[in-house]
Amino acid sequence: MQNDGIRVLVVEDNPDWSQALVSMLQQADSFQVVGTASNGIDAVEQAASKKPDLILLDIGLPRLNGLGAARRIRDVHSAAKIIFVTENSDPDFVRAALDIGGRGYIFKSRASSELLTGIAIVLNEGILVSNNLSDSLCEASL
Fold it and tell me: Which of 9, 27, 44, 77 could form a disulfide with 52 if both were Cys (CB 3.0 to 4.6 A apart)?
């Protein structure tokens, strides 16, 4: 782990995906992974204690799902920016994630091509929704 850069908490219950996200971040010099969590309760606790700048958060988590964790994280560390990285492409979940303060929503199958760009957008106060998800979101709004 690095000692400087954007402080990131990775929250993912699948160990392979967790490692993949950590590896993607480690390839860029500007990130410091301050912790990993595999359930929503641990995510809230680590957000409170480690005060990350950015949280990569799955929705389908044990003990407390990602949406519930994000709500609680807002109470304990509201300054953290949250990007959901998930397999859930339901437009209702996308809306819910953004409504509770998520700044990004990336489909796991697009993470390798969208994650680093998405993080840059979010850190510059933008909002990112994966291309294939934004199409579904627009269609559901019609």
Answer: 9
Per DSSP (E only), the strands in the chain are 6-11, 31-37, 54-57, 81-86, 102-107, 128-129
Render pLDDT for 112-124 as a digit per residue (tens, 0 to 9): 999 999 999 999 9
Task: Examine residue 92 and state whether it is found in any structural domain, yes or no.
Answer: yes
Model pTM above 0.70 = yes
DSSP count for the chain of H helices, then E strands: 6, 6
Residue 56 inside a domain? The answer is yes
Q: What is the pLDDT of residue 130?
A: 85
| Domain-located, residue 82 | yes
Domain that holds residue 131: 6-141
β partners of residue 57 = 11, 84
- Reply yes or no on whether the pLDDT at 25 is more than 90: yes
Q: How many structural domains comprise the chain?
A: 1
